[in-house]
Amino acid sequence: MLLGVNIDHIAVLREARAIADPDPLDALSIVKRAGADQITIHLREDRRHIRDSDAENIIKHSMLPINLECAISPEIIDIVTTLRPHRATIVPEKREEVTTEGGLAVVGEQIALQRAIAQLQANEIEVSLFIDPTIESVEASKSLGVEWIEFHTGKYANIYAMLYGNLASTPYSIAELELTRTKLKKMLRDELKILRCLSYDAVEMGLRVAAGHGLNYHNVKEIVDIETIEELNIGQSIIARSVFSGLEQAILDMRALLLR
After folding, report:
1. Is 231 a residue of the active site?
2. Which of 70, 128, 170, 215 could form a disulfide with 148 if both were Cys (CB 3.0 to 4.6 A apart)?
3. CA end-to-end span of the chain, whole Å?
4. Quick check: 245 and 189 in contact, CB under 8 A?
5. DSSP codes of every residue in 53-92
6. How far is CA 219 from CA 6, 16, 22, 27, in A?
7. Beta-strand pair 38-42/66-70
8. Domain range for 130
């Protein structure tokens, strides 16, 4: 399985003090050396972490393909068109959110998406849409002519965290605790089935399938087992581990989990 390493959180750390380091550019050689397949960054409209200069320098100097996440605002699409990364992944944005909390409303945004996709593809940029795992979103993505979709795995990750988190610390009786676990296990199986079935459907339609959001060293293996998902984009958990292990080792640890 392919691994895209999202290095946004290096810039988050830099912006916490509004100083010059750590510089995301310094991660490029480490990410490549550790065996990742691409680098992912998100140029947000409010520039809360990755700056325009970061995006320009990373795309210019990276030896790996760059997957640039972006909103569909004309200003941002114009910038992406100028920078010409290998791929643009169009994502929804809300200024008040901490991180991207859901997939694109593909069905409701088709006119704006058509305009953005046409502009990107005219400049030889692959396009991916970051979507919730629903058949409507998959079919709409196919109709828009993109090369990739990326499933938002936040719901799966949240269920996993609830199931394997410290439920024992909650004020449940033993019976209530077991009932809760049983319910969460079913929810987890159902969500994995949805991801598996929709990934297969998407591939049958001619789309390439990626996934990301909330994936970490504990929950990623079940997603790796879905053979029609060929790429994962993972950031926060890798950067968090790197604080203690170093970035190269953190990526190597994740790569080992992506083996099929």
Report:
1. no
2. 128
3. 7
4. no
5. HHHHHHHHH-SS-EEEEE-S-HHHHHHHHHH--SEEEE--
6. 17, 28, 28, 25
7. parallel
8. 2-257
| Catalytic-role residue among 9, 49, 69, 231 | 69
pLDDT for the residue 93: 78
Looking at the structure of the chain, the number of domains it has is 1
Contact indicator for 67, 128 with CB cutoff of 8 Å:
yes
| 9 labelled catalytic | no
Is-contact 31 233, C-beta < 8 A? no
Query: What does pTM read for this prediction?
Result: 0.93
Please identify which of the residues 9, 150, 213, 231 carries the catalytic annotation. 213
In terms of Cα–Cα distance, which of 234, 260, 214 is closest to 67?
A: 234
- Of the pLDDT bands very low, low, confident and very high (cuts 50, 70, 90), residue 173 is confident
Mean pLDDT for the chain overall = 94
The answer to whether 42 is a known catalytic residue is yes
Residue 107's CB: how many other CB atoms inside 10 A?
A: 14
Active site residue: 42, 49, 152, 231, which one?
Answer: 42
Are 61 and 39 in contact by the 8 Å Cβ rule? The answer is no
Q: What is the DSSP letter of 147?
A: S
Alpha helix positions (H), the chain: 8-17, 28-33, 52-61, 74-83, 110-122, 135-143, 154-164, 174-204, 220-224, 236-245, 247-257
